[in-house]
Description:
Elements: H1 9-42, E1 115-120, H2 127-137, E2 141-147, E3 156-159, H3 164-176, E4 179-182, E5 194-198, H4 205-208
Parallel strand pairs: 1-2, 1-5, 3-4
Antiparallel strand pairs: 3-5
Amino acid sequence: MSLFSGLSRPMKAAGLALVGVAVIAAVIGGITLTSGGGDSDTATPPGTTPTSSDGATQPSSPAPGSPSASTPPASSSAPPSSAPASSAPPASQPGQTGQPGQPGGDQQASHKWVTVRVYNNSTIQGLAEQAAKDFRASGWNVSEVKGYPGRLPETVAYYRPGTDEEAAAKALALEFGFRAEPRFKEIENIGPGVIVILTKDYKSNDKDGT
Length: 210
């Protein structure tokens, strides 16, 4: 007995058409399933590492535009400068005029702290006082003014060799125009300081303009 027995002719025709469509759909589905299964064997899902036929993992290539893994990163900071800052040498301090061991702006001023004793060996009254005034006006440290007996040929500044008196006596003599010599025996034991023994050749007007 047929599946379509008992049906009218139009119904049989419709049933055959449906069966044909079902068969065609089944054939198309089988072809699609077969071709899809073949692709699944070779395609690699995204995010997984492809492997070779022997099971070894294949290295992945870096994405275009990305930095190479072997390239070291560039240094972001410059090395600190090793050059030391220059500094100027400290300026030397000028000596203080009149202080021992600290020369002033000129040779004479550096010795004016040394004591000076002024003795009059002439017949000119007040010559020692006038000379002392001249010396003090020039900055010299006059500590004693008096007369000196005897007769000496010329005005001389006397000093004890090897002491500060030597340089001071020479500077004083150079400034006022007479000579400087070591002390002689009669004045060796007088107190410290340059001893200026004046004679009539001393010219006081050389300094005060009188």
